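Let us walk through a complete example step by step. Step one is to write down the protein sequence. Step two is to encode the small molecule, zinc ion, as a SMILES string so that its atoms and bonds are unambiguous. Step three, shown after the inputs, is the structure prediction itself.
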Amino acid sequence: MLLKLKDVFLNDGSRSEFDYSLPLAELDINGDYPFKSPVRVLATAVNRAGVVELNVKAVFDYTTRCDRCFVPITKPMELSFAHGLATELIDEENDDYIETPDYTLELDDVVISDILLNLPSKMLCKDDCKGLCPKCGKNLNEGDCGCDNETIDSRLEILKQLID
Ligand SMILES: [Zn+2]
Ligand SMILES: [Zn+2]
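Step three: the predicted structure of the complex.
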Protein backbone atom coordinates (compact mmCIF):
# COMPACT_ATOMS: atom_id res chain seq x y z
CA MET A 1 0.00 0.00 0.00
CA LEU A 2 1.30 3.43 -0.90
CA LEU A 3 1.08 5.68 2.15
CA LYS A 4 0.47 9.34 1.37
CA LEU A 5 1.86 11.21 4.33
CA LYS A 6 2.03 14.82 3.23
CA ASP A 7 -0.59 15.95 5.74
CA VAL A 8 1.22 14.16 8.56
CA PHE A 9 4.58 15.62 7.56
CA LEU A 10 3.27 19.17 7.35
CA ASN A 11 1.20 19.23 10.54
CA ASP A 12 2.89 18.86 13.89
CA GLY A 13 0.92 16.47 16.10
CA SER A 14 -1.13 14.89 13.34
CA ARG A 15 -1.39 11.16 12.76
CA SER A 16 -2.60 8.69 10.17
CA GLU A 17 -3.60 5.09 10.70
CA PHE A 18 -3.62 2.25 8.22
CA ASP A 19 -5.04 -1.24 8.49
CA TYR A 20 -4.96 -3.59 5.54
CA SER A 21 -4.25 -7.12 4.37
CA LEU A 22 -1.10 -7.90 2.45
CA PRO A 23 -1.22 -11.17 0.47
CA LEU A 24 2.22 -12.82 0.43
CA ALA A 25 1.25 -16.27 -0.83
CA GLU A 26 3.78 -15.90 -3.68
CA LEU A 27 6.67 -15.03 -1.37
CA ASP A 28 9.27 -17.76 -1.72
CA ILE A 29 11.50 -18.38 1.30
CA ASN A 30 14.09 -21.06 0.53
CA GLY A 31 11.63 -22.88 -1.72
CA ASP A 32 8.79 -22.65 0.78
CA TYR A 33 5.66 -20.52 0.69
CA PRO A 34 5.07 -19.82 4.39
CA PHE A 35 2.33 -17.17 4.09
CA LYS A 36 -0.78 -19.22 3.32
CA SER A 37 -3.08 -16.42 4.44
CA PRO A 38 -2.58 -12.65 4.05
CA VAL A 39 -0.56 -10.64 6.55
CA ARG A 40 -2.59 -8.08 8.47
CA VAL A 41 -0.70 -4.79 8.59
CA LEU A 42 -1.50 -2.15 11.21
CA ALA A 43 0.49 1.04 10.84
CA THR A 44 0.49 4.44 12.49
CA ALA A 45 2.40 7.49 11.31
CA VAL A 46 2.68 10.28 13.87
CA ASN A 47 4.31 13.67 13.57
CA ARG A 48 6.06 14.47 16.83
CA ALA A 49 7.62 17.90 16.73
CA GLY A 50 8.36 17.61 13.03
CA VAL A 51 9.71 14.06 13.09
CA VAL A 52 7.43 11.42 11.61
CA GLU A 53 7.44 8.10 13.43
CA LEU A 54 6.09 5.02 11.74
CA ASN A 55 4.99 2.11 13.91
CA VAL A 56 4.02 -1.09 12.17
CA LYS A 57 2.52 -4.29 13.47
CA ALA A 58 2.36 -7.37 11.24
CA VAL A 59 0.03 -10.18 12.31
CA PHE A 60 0.15 -13.45 10.39
CA ASP A 61 0.28 -17.23 10.44
CA TYR A 62 3.61 -18.67 9.41
CA THR A 63 3.64 -22.17 7.95
CA THR A 64 6.91 -24.05 8.01
CA ARG A 65 8.44 -27.28 9.30
CA CYS A 66 9.68 -27.99 12.80
CA ASP A 67 13.47 -27.66 12.83
CA ARG A 68 13.85 -30.88 14.82
CA CYS A 69 11.14 -33.32 13.72
CA PHE A 70 10.16 -31.72 10.39
CA VAL A 71 6.38 -31.97 10.87
CA PRO A 72 4.49 -29.10 9.21
CA ILE A 73 3.57 -26.37 11.70
CA THR A 74 1.67 -23.12 11.52
CA LYS A 75 2.67 -20.50 14.06
CA PRO A 76 0.64 -17.38 14.79
CA MET A 77 3.09 -14.49 14.81
CA GLU A 78 2.97 -10.82 15.72
CA LEU A 79 5.97 -8.65 14.90
CA SER A 80 6.34 -4.93 15.57
CA PHE A 81 8.69 -2.50 13.90
CA ALA A 82 9.38 1.21 14.15
CA HIS A 83 11.02 3.58 11.71
CA GLY A 84 11.58 7.29 11.51
CA LEU A 85 10.62 8.92 8.24
CA ALA A 86 12.52 11.85 6.85
CA THR A 87 12.27 13.78 3.60
CA GLU A 88 16.05 13.70 3.47
CA LEU A 89 18.38 11.40 5.31
CA ILE A 90 20.04 13.06 8.25
CA ASP A 91 22.25 10.11 9.06
CA GLU A 92 23.08 7.65 6.27
CA GLU A 93 24.33 5.11 8.79
CA ASN A 94 21.04 4.89 10.62
CA ASP A 95 18.93 2.13 9.07
CA ASP A 96 15.97 2.97 11.27
CA TYR A 97 15.32 6.00 9.09
CA ILE A 98 13.59 5.72 5.76
CA GLU A 99 13.85 8.46 3.19
CA THR A 100 10.51 9.69 1.90
CA PRO A 101 11.37 12.69 -0.29
CA ASP A 102 7.90 13.02 -1.81
CA TYR A 103 5.98 12.26 1.43
CA THR A 104 4.97 8.81 0.19
CA LEU A 105 6.08 5.37 1.29
CA GLU A 106 5.48 1.97 -0.27
CA LEU A 107 4.71 0.21 2.99
CA ASP A 108 4.56 -3.32 1.52
CA ASP A 109 8.31 -3.32 0.78
CA VAL A 110 9.09 -2.13 4.30
CA VAL A 111 6.83 -4.75 5.88
CA ILE A 112 8.29 -7.59 3.81
CA SER A 113 11.90 -6.74 4.62
CA ASP A 114 11.07 -6.15 8.30
CA ILE A 115 9.34 -9.54 8.54
CA LEU A 116 12.22 -11.34 6.84
CA LEU A 117 14.77 -9.70 9.13
CA ASN A 118 12.83 -10.50 12.28
CA LEU A 119 11.65 -14.05 11.73
CA PRO A 120 13.06 -16.44 14.33
CA SER A 121 15.86 -18.51 12.81
CA LYS A 122 14.49 -21.72 14.29
CA MET A 123 10.91 -22.81 14.85
CA LEU A 124 9.87 -25.87 16.80
CA CYS A 125 6.51 -27.66 16.90
CA LYS A 126 6.80 -27.38 20.70
CA ASP A 127 9.58 -26.23 23.01
CA ASP A 128 10.41 -29.75 24.15
CA CYS A 129 10.21 -31.40 20.72
CA LYS A 130 12.18 -34.64 20.95
CA GLY A 131 13.09 -34.68 17.28
CA LEU A 132 13.82 -37.76 15.21
CA CYS A 133 15.68 -40.89 16.26
CA PRO A 134 19.15 -40.60 14.73
CA LYS A 135 19.08 -44.32 13.91
CA CYS A 136 15.65 -45.14 12.50
CA GLY A 137 14.27 -41.65 11.86
CA LYS A 138 11.10 -42.18 13.89
CA ASN A 139 9.46 -39.07 15.28
CA LEU A 140 10.19 -39.51 19.00
CA ASN A 141 7.28 -37.23 19.98
CA GLU A 142 5.04 -40.13 18.91
CA GLY A 143 6.74 -42.53 21.29
CA ASP A 144 9.95 -44.38 21.80
CA CYS A 145 11.23 -46.39 18.83
CA GLY A 146 13.15 -48.93 20.89
CA CYS A 147 16.46 -48.23 19.19
CA ASP A 148 19.57 -48.56 21.26
CA ASN A 149 20.76 -44.98 21.40
CA GLU A 150 23.24 -45.66 24.15
CA THR A 151 26.02 -43.56 22.64
CA ILE A 152 23.85 -40.50 23.04
CA ASP A 153 22.82 -41.51 26.54
CA SER A 154 26.40 -42.00 27.66
CA ARG A 155 27.33 -38.60 26.26
CA LEU A 156 24.53 -37.13 28.30
CA GLU A 157 25.85 -38.96 31.36
CA ILE A 158 29.27 -37.38 30.85
CA LEU A 159 27.64 -34.00 30.50
CA LYS A 160 25.72 -34.55 33.72
CA GLN A 161 28.91 -35.43 35.56
CA LEU A 162 30.57 -32.32 34.21
CA ILE A 163 27.70 -30.18 35.43
CA ASP A 164 27.71 -31.85 38.86
ZN1 LIG B 1 9.04 -30.96 16.30
ZN1 LIG C 1 14.93 -45.37 16.45
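Step four is interpretation. Residues 66, 68-69, 71, 124-125, 129 surround zinc ion (ligand 1) (CB under 6 Å).
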